[in-house]
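Please, structure for the following, as tokens.
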Amino acid sequence: MELWRSIPLPVEQANMANTDYIIAFDETGTPSLKNLSIFSKINSHQFTLSGVIFDKTTINNIAEKIITLKKSFWENGEYKNHRVLFHSRYMRKKEGPFNPKIIENTKFNTSLKNTLSDLPFEISSSSIDKLTHKLKYARPRPVYNLAMEFILERLTYRLNWLNSSGIIVLESRGIKEDKELLLQMVSILENGNKYVNNKDFNCIKGIYFNNKWTSDRHKSYWPLEIADIVSYSIHQHVLNKDSPLYEIINKKIIGYPHVDGRGLKKFP
């Protein structure tokens, strides 16, 4: 059995010669159904999980553009001796390196939008209305697992249509949490589901876990940063809230301009 199926491994241990695409995942919101009711804040009703699909042949070019963007606003692309991390929470709250005393946010947002527009990637995303899910089903399925299964189905359709393969990279949450998620995902791949058989899932060649920074924080794993930005933007869109980047991101969702039910799965 391949080691990645039983132990959470960093992406450095992936067999990159054996894959065509790298798919970075990130989520917005919490998947918990606890204490959720019609009286809960509307923001807490939604959970969004997104996978951003990068062609391996474009990786070096994309990395260069991300570094160029960071270096154009921060010396050597660093803040307090750490590589600047594009994190949607800090960006919207204008904290840390995004403090208005450090950079001109309007100019940065325009540059970020232009850079994302130029980058070649595709998106598969799933957004679940947790309250409706909880009220509709006597035994609602775990939200994260459900969102992940929706995306794995669509990734499989896409990769097999392209006659290609891919690896998945998720942000590491801790050894226990990573292993639990890995086993759940591997179960889907090995057993299939009612829509995709296990052989069709063979296009997924590995699942890996990484922090967004390297241990010395002088480098970052930019695919996870882009996934963070993408997921938050789609989440805001589903909540019918303004998202200045969604116009750009929407065009990269699989199936554009008809993304609903294809690259963007809304449930229930």
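Residues 170 and 209 are 5 Å apart (CA to CA). Strands lie at 21-28, 46-55, 78-79, 82-83, 122-129, 166-171, 204-210, 264-267.
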